[in-house]
């Protein structure tokens, strides 16, 4: 629901911005009820240009965003591989420590028995 509400809000903001911008730049005479041909043509061109620019910007944004997402995924995979390698290295060190501990205990037991 939040996503749909945000889309509606974004659309209404864009619509209001286009309306305000094109009205301010195209409508010259506020004394008449109807728009002149020049005003209609100006408003049509204004909306068309704004829409085209907006579509181009969105296309570029989508392309750039997909590249950014791919780089982020590669970074995450690299970090995961690094963490996995570190975890394996720590596990090997722990195993080496555990294997070395019985040898030390056996050596100390044999030293005690020869001293007695």
From TrEMBL:
<dbReference type="Pfam" id="PF02953">
    <property type="entry name" value="zf-Tim10_DDP"/>
</dbReference>
<keyword id="KW-0143">Chaperone</keyword>
<dbReference type="GO" id="GO:0015031">
    <property type="term" value="P:protein transport"/>
</dbReference>
<keyword id="KW-0653">Protein transport</keyword>
<keyword id="KW-0813">Transport</keyword>
<keyword id="KW-0999">Mitochondrion inner membrane</keyword>
<dbReference type="GO" id="GO:0005743">
    <property type="term" value="C:mitochondrial inner membrane"/>
</dbReference>
<keyword id="KW-0472">Membrane</keyword>
<feature type="domain" description="Tim10-like">
    <location>
        <begin position="6"/>
        <end position="61"/>
    </location>
</feature>
<comment type="similarity">
    <text>Belongs to the small Tim family.</text>
</comment>
<comment type="subunit">
    <text>Heterohexamer.</text>
</comment>
<keyword id="KW-0496">Mitochondrion</keyword>
<dbReference type="InterPro" id="IPR050673">
    <property type="entry name" value="Mito_inner_translocase_sub"/>
</dbReference>
<dbReference type="InterPro" id="IPR035427">
    <property type="entry name" value="Tim10-like_dom_sf"/>
</dbReference>
<keyword id="KW-1015">Disulfide bond</keyword>
<keyword id="KW-0479">Metal-binding</keyword>
<feature type="region of interest" description="Disordered">
    <location>
        <begin position="92"/>
        <end position="116"/>
    </location>
</feature>
<dbReference type="InterPro" id="IPR004217">
    <property type="entry name" value="Tim10-like"/>
</dbReference>
<comment type="function">
    <text>Mitochondrial intermembrane chaperone that participates in the import and insertion of some multi-pass transmembrane proteins into the mitochondrial inner membrane. Also required for the transfer of beta-barrel precursors from the TOM complex to the sorting and assembly machinery (SAM complex) of the outer membrane. Acts as a chaperone-like protein that protects the hydrophobic precursors from aggregation and guide them through the mitochondrial intermembrane space.</text>
</comment>
<keyword id="KW-0811">Translocation</keyword>
<dbReference type="GO" id="GO:0046872">
    <property type="term" value="F:metal ion binding"/>
</dbReference>
<keyword id="KW-0862">Zinc</keyword>
<protein>
    <recommendedName>
        <fullName>Mitochondrial import inner membrane translocase subunit</fullName>
    </recommendedName>
</protein>
């Amino acid at each position: 629901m939040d996503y749909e509400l945000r889309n509606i809000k974004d659309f209404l903001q864009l619509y209001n911005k286009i309306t305000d911008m094109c009205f301010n730049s195209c409508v010259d005479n506020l004394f008449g009820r109807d728009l002149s041909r020049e005003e209609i043509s100006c408003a049509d061109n204004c909306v068309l240009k704004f829409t085209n620019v907006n579509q181009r910007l969105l296309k570029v944004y989508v392309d750039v965003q997909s590249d950014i997402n791919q780089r982020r995924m590669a970074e995450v995979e690299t970090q995961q591989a690094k963490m996995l390698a570190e975890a394996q290295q720590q596990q090997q060190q722990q195993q080496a420590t555990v294997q070395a501990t019985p040898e030390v205990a056996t050596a100390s037991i044999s030293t005690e028995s020869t001293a007695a």
